[in-house]
Amino acid sequence: EPHAGQRPKQPAVEGHTALPDAHQEQRIGQKLIKGVKENVPHAPAKHRTDGTVEDQITDLLCPPGVVRPAQLRSIGPPLAKDPAHEKARQIGQAVPTDRQRAKGNKNRIDVGVMHSCSLSDAGGSRLKCSMCLILLAHRVHPDYPLIVAANRDEFYARATASAHYWQRPDDLLAGRDLEAGGTWLGVSRSGRFAAVTNVSEPPPMEVLRSRGELTSGFLLGSASSQDYADALSGSNYRGFNLLLWDGETLVYESNRNHGRALEPGFYGLANAGLDEEKFRVTSGREGLRTTIQDGFADAATLSAALLALLEDRNHPDAADPATTPTITPTGQHTLDPARLARFIVGEEYGTRASTAVLLGAGAVHFTERVFVNRGEVRGDATFRFELTG
Hints:
Layout: H1 22-39, H2 53-61, H3 83-90, H4 99-102, E1 118-120, E2 126-128, E3 133-138, E4 146-155, E5 160-165, E6 172-177, E7 185-188, E8 193-198, H5 212-219, H6 225-231, E9 240-245, E10 250-254, E11 260-261, E12 265-269, H7 279-294, H8 299-310, E13 325-327, E14 333-335, E15 349-359, E16 363-372, E17 376-386
Antiparallel strand pairs: 1-2, 3-4, 3-12, 4-15, 5-6, 6-7, 7-8, 8-9, 9-10, 10-11, 13-14, 15-16, 16-17
């Protein structure tokens, strides 16, 4: 156990590309600053401040309220080393942006590493607006005690591996986040299932553990759903919603909401809490109910119906308070009804994968459909295996 104030150890990341060293960063930073300095006086007024040139450059590159690109790294000569920052940088995890650290260092722009849709609220706080969706049918089907239909929404530029059998160990079927090493959804050969969504909230300044390890930790272990949930230390992670199935019990756990074992029924989960009152959650849950009640002759037909349910792009005509905020070119906040759809379409950000999982008494059927930008299908993959334990 780490001592008080000591940060938990972070796992190594497979396939991580090393960051530039200090000399490379300095050369890149100097070239960038030289080029941007020449353009700062001509930048739009909303990008300029009354501060230093370095502040103007930072505002020009990352003006408050603008949706950030998929990856921005700190550039320029290093500041005084912070062990937590250095460790996070080594494994490619998010480093909190702190513009005060950059002041007084004319060759550095500390814009952090960000891989989520970020924007500012009226008070200047950073908000998370990742938009995942998980629909569940728990013990309502005669052949499948658990049916899952899920969309993963993310930046297309984020390094990700589609669903596959992990080599070490080889009893886990899941996609993989190649930047943090964990997974958002997966199943094991023994019939365990886990999935996680992020809670939309301002990011903390401290470096915390990857939420993707919550799922892989359960899938690779043997603890019951309830025991695993009870043993979690939620303060080690940013806000999460976690679903755990051990073959008998389905548990919802969260470090922001009240967790519990779930009774038989239909459920929907996005980025607030279980069964939140958002269009994509409520419409998806009722759509799942209808799909299950319609009845299908085989797993392939049912899986196809679930994927069609997830690909529904309909949304309310008018914005409402539940709609995700977005930013216009002028920096103003708007409410975009399209973000309420179950399936999100975009150039840089949108639904990247739809997954249908049928967990039966003796076998698992797993189908994933992968998308590229603008919602175009890249391909499907179907897995079926007998349970081992």
